Amino acid sequence: MYQREIVCLDCGGATQAIARVLVDGGWRVRPASSADEARRLLDELAPRIALVAFAAALPDASDVRTLEDVLETNTRTAWVALVEPGLLESPAMQRLIASYFRDYISAPFLPETILQSVGHAYGMATIDGVAYQTVAAAPADEMLGQSAAMENVRRVLRKCARSRAPVTVTGESGTGKELAARSIHHQSAHATGPFIAVNCGAIPANLIQAELFGHCRGAFTGADRDKIGRIEAARGGTLFLDEIGDLSLGLQVNLLRFLQEGVIEKVGTHRPISVDTRVIAATHKNLEKAVAAGEFREDLYYRLNVLWAEMPPLRERADDIELLAQAYLERFSSLRNGRAAGFSRQALAVIKAHPWPGNIRELVNRVQRAVVMSDRRLVTPADLDLDRRCISRNPQTLEQVRAAAEKDALRRSLRHSGHNVAETARDLGVSRLTIYRLMEKHGLQQNASGVPLACTNRNA
């Protein structure tokens, strides 16, 4: 009989009895005793559903952050929580469940309740998966935004898509670096090939070489069959290496050889395999500083950083915030039959005033929570878990807003042109003298440091 797979993470809860119920119900249970082990299973199996069993007390803060990271990076998995009744009184647990879980079950854990809950969550995850695939097939629609910053990003990505050279996408966490990589892929000559994403920081160090390059049977304990690595799986398409800055120095050497020669060797063999794969890397780290500190190979840095693009933080996309919030509200409401149809005036005010340190990922999280929590047609600040007091009591004057926008436009244009004053003047439609005056006004130097937001061949 076909068995549906479910990952069961034990956060101090007793899962053995639960596992027996699930096995008897036709599920194939994959137990995990830690968040890191659950992450590995999720990466390997990509299950539609996972279960977390909590003990009577909430895990400590560091364990909760690790768990949240796993939950945030596996949004296509439907999560179900097993919770002791007393723990449900904790505001922290209430926020955790509301933000990430499709359903929860409180003790006593009756077999019929467990099977009904996970079965329903599995079915809904299947429906959501179809919706996700439909959206992923048209990534251009996902690059939402009408701000000048996003128009610049789109222009850069189109240029990057025309080349076969490696691309490095930089930006803060949650700014949509993978989305940018998918946009490049779908506009490139590799669009008909696969897009394979690898989070270099999420795979355990002792497994990542085999994950990237594959392994032969008998290469190490547990290698009972040959396995194709992610690089080979992306043949004819695009390999997206997220958080490339977390890759160990040893693996950086192997990756450098692949980029130079287009060949890989599986773990356990020295037979070279030729692979035609376009590489896009991403990181929130400053790789130039990592090179200076000896944490990242300089030769690999220049191989990866032939073309580059920077994703702007959400706080620099003020014109897009309301548009993004409304788009995600409509999506989550349609998928989950939510009641919310829009945002209240107060909710829009706090959305625009919030600094969004977590960028788009935080916005998505809060809107998804609001769809679950809202009992009205219009979302409130409380539904978003944002305090109305966050609205600034000292708003900027119009002159301050104009000066900030002027400085930002000048800085970005200078970075785009490689600090070429003549080109910057043409881009902004002013004279070179005006550019020099504005640079002096805003304290910008012609040789200012910083990674340009451009698609430029540094080796040219």
Describe the structure.
- The structure is a single chain.
- The protein is built from 19 helices and 14 strands.
- The chain is globular.
- The protein is of the alpha/beta class.
- The strands form four sheets. The chain has a five-stranded parallel beta sheet with strand order 2-1-3-4-5, with helices on both faces.
- Mean pLDDT is 81; it is low at 130-141 and 447-460.
- The protein has helices spanning 16-24, 35-45, 61-72, 91-100, 111-136, 148-161, 177-186, 205-213, 230-233, 249-261, 287-292, 298-304, 318-336, 345-353, 359-373, 381-384, 398-416, 421-428, 432-441, and strands at 4-11, 27-32, 49-54, 78-83, 103-106, 167-170, 195-199, 238-242, 263-265, 272-274, 278-283, 307-310, 342-343, 378-379.
- Helix 17 packs across helix 18 and helix 18 (421-428) packs across helix 19.
- It comes from Salinisphaera dokdonensis CL-ES53.
- Keywords: ATP-binding, Nucleotide-binding, Transcription, Transcription regulation.
Comma- or semicolon-separated keywords:
460 residues; alpha/beta; 5-stranded parallel β-sheet; 19 helices; globular; transcription; ATP-binding
Summed up:
Helices cover 47% and strands 14% of the residues. By secondary structure, the protein is α/β, with parallel strands linked by helices. Helix 3 (61-72) links the parallel strand 3 and strand 4.
